[in-house]
Amino acid sequence: MNLSTDIWVWVGVFLTFCIYSFLYRDNPFYKFGEHLFVGVSNAFTLSFMVHRIIIPILVRPFTEAWRTAGSEGLSAGLFNPYAPSNFLVIIPGVIGCFYFARFIPGLTWLVRIPIALFMGYYVGRSVPAYLEGSVFPQMRGTMLTQASFDPAQGGILGGIFALLVLVGVIGTLTYFFFSKEHKGVVKWGAQTGIVFVMVGFGASFGFTVMARVSLAIGRFIFILRDALGIVT
C-alpha cells in the first residue's frame, strides 16, 4: 500500500464518499457534496461564459470599434449596413440583457423575446440536421433493395436483418396508430410492435446502466490506485 500525499486526492476521496453516503440515507455529508457540486458547476459555467463568450464576442469587439471610430462611428455603424459590423454586437447584447427583466415588475414580458429568438434559431438549425442525420438514414434503412442482399452487406443474412428492421418499424408505427381499433391484422401488428419497443427500451436501459457502472468503476479505481496505491 502506497498512500497518496496529495491533499487534493484525499479531497476527491472525501467528496466521493459524501455522495455515495446517500446509498445509506439522506445525511448532511451528502447535502454538502451535492451543494458543493452545484455551486462549483454554476461558478465554472458563469466564469466560462464571461471569459470565453461575453468578453471576446461582445465586450472586446465593441470597445475596439469604439476606440477606433468613437461615438460618431457608433451611430454610423448602427444605421449604415456598410459600416464595420463590430458595433452591431450591441443588438444581441441588449437582447441578452432582457433576461434580467424578470426581476423588474411590469417588464417580465421582455424575457420572452430572447427565449423566442433562442428557441427559434436552434429549432430551425437542428431540424434539417436531424432529418439528414437521423430520420432520412433510418427511412433508407427500411427500404429492401437489391443492395440489401449484396455480399458486401452480409448477403442473405443482411437481407434478413433489413427485413427485420422493416417489420419492426411497421409494427411500432401500428402500435402507436390509435385511429383504428386494434383488431385483426392491426392487433397482430401492434403486438409485434410492442415487442420491438420493449427490446429497444431494454437496450437503452442496459446501455444507461453500463454507463453509470463505468463511472462507479472509475471512482473505485481512483480510490484504490490514486489514493491508497493498492492497484497499479
Please provide a written account of the structure.
The protein has 232 residues and is mostly helical. It has 2 domains: 1-103, no CATH class; 142-232, no CATH class. 72% of the residues lie in helices and 0% in strands. It is built from 6 helices and no strands. Helix 1 (7-20) crosses helix 2. It is extended, with a radius of gyration of 29 Å.
Identify the notable features of this structure and list them briefly.
transmembrane helix, membrane
Shape call: extended
Beta-strand percentage?
A: under 5%
Radius of gyration: 29 Å
Number of strands: 0
Mean pLDDT figure: 85
Tell me roughly what share of residues is in helical segments: over 70%
Largest sheet: none
Number of domains: 2
Tell me the structural class: mainly alpha
- Put simply, the count of helices is 6
> What string, H for helix and E for strand, traces the elements in order?
HHHHHH
Could you tell me how far the N terminus lies from the C terminus, measured between alpha carbons in angstroms?
10 Å
Low-pLDDT stretches: none
Keywords: Membrane, Transmembrane, Transmembrane helix
